[in-house]
Amino acid sequence: MPVFDLTDLPAACPPDTPWIGLDLGENTIGVAVSDTSRMIASPLQLIRKVKFSQDAAQLIKLMNGRNVSALVIGLPLNMDGTEGPRAQSCRAFARNLERLRPVNVAFQDERLSTTAVERFLIEELDLSRKRRADVVDRTAAAWILQGALDRLRD
């Protein structure tokens, strides 16, 4: 599986192709997509985890349908920057997915992304707890992907 440093990812991808961002949770996968110019990330979908083969099939269908050239996967590092079991699980997910469909991958530090998104949804949008539960993971995926896109422009 081609795993790239984020700064090397654009050179590995055809121009004018979107990227997908993933927030891999224990029970769900938040999915976001960029525009073809890779300037703006938007929440796309929430995949409720069933088993890997079904989850991967849904993701591959999205990737193929949108002509996606890369995945930016949130990497849940510990606060000290080390990788724990959740980060290892994200790397394993990427390896297993690559066996089914080759794709360029980069990981983006996602520390506190869900917390930041929750705060935004509460303070700025005043969403109820039930409504937040419906949007937080896909919004976190957009937050992760947008962070990566912004980092590439800096």
Automatic annotation (TrEMBL):
UniProt keyword Cytoplasm present: yes
Keyword list, A-Z: Cytoplasm, Hydrolase, Nuclease, Ribosome biogenesis
Keyword Hydrolase: yes
Main location as per UniProt: cytoplasm
Subcellular location: Cytoplasm
Residue ranges of domain YqgF/RNase H-like in the record: 17-117
EC identifiers of the protein: 3.1.-.-
Leader peptide range in chain numbering: none
Class of this enzyme: hydrolase
Purpose of the protein: Could be a nuclease involved in processing of the 5'-end of pre-16S rRNA.
Family designation: Belongs to the YqgF HJR family.
Full protein name: Putative pre-16S rRNA nuclease
Gene source species: Brevundimonas pondensis
Name of the gene: ruvX
